[in-house]
Amino acid sequence: MAGRPLNATAASLLGFLHEGPKTGWDLVATAQERIGKFWSLTTSQVYRELSAMERDGLIEAGETGPRARKPYALTDDGRRAFADWLERDPGPENIRHPLLLTVAFAEHLPAHRLAEILAHYRAEHERQLAEYEQLLASHVLPDYPAATVEFGIAYERAVLSWLRGMDERIVGAVNAADRNAPT
Questions:
Q1: Tens digit of pLDDT per residue, the chain (183 long)?
Q2: How far apart are the C-alpha atoms of 72 and 69, rounded to whole Å?
Q3: Order of strands across the sheet with 22-23?
């Protein structure tokens, strides 16, 4: 591959193109559906990567279709670049979790507001857990995609367990504040 090393976003697009030609619009929808819960891609990222990969010879554009959409197909160089990327170590995780940032500074937040925020997150994670469990129960997924859904289930259960611990912490902090309040 000429130019730059393949990044994870570009690699994911090449992975989807193994299934056959797709437009940028198709790739955005596929990414949101299949990896959107654990790897976020924006529309602008997808189109930026498509341009770069076409320039690098990893994909080639087909004839422009309706609404000026072009299907992209893998080239042999694209298949090799994807295989090379897939073989390498994925690298360290990087957790960016907005709730954790709020909790890190929660001493500056009234306990009732923190409890409201946590309740909102709990509802979202309960909904997501139910969605993952329903997906696993109602679809016959190939082994490796099923493994990513199983990870999602384990993650949601871990977050919900952590949230229960946070509830206990808040109750403890409120009780301590009440005991120490002037009478």
A1: 455 789 999 999 999 999 999 999 999 999 998 898 888 889 999 999 999 999 999 999 998 877 778 999 999 999 999 999 999 999 888 888 899 999 999 999 999 999 999 999 999 999 999 999 999 998 888 899 899 999 999 999 999 999 999 999 888 777 666 667 676
A2: 10
A3: 22-23, 71-74, 59-61
Q: For tokens 């955005």, what's the residue?
A: 28
CA distances from 21 to 10, 16, 48 (A): 15, 9, 17
Burial class (CB in 10 A: 0-12, 13-18, 19+), 173: middle
DSSP state of 108: G
The sign of the dihedral angle between the CA atoms of 40, 44, 50, 52 is negative
Rounded CA separation 59/52 (Å): 9
Supply the pTM of this predicted model: 0.75
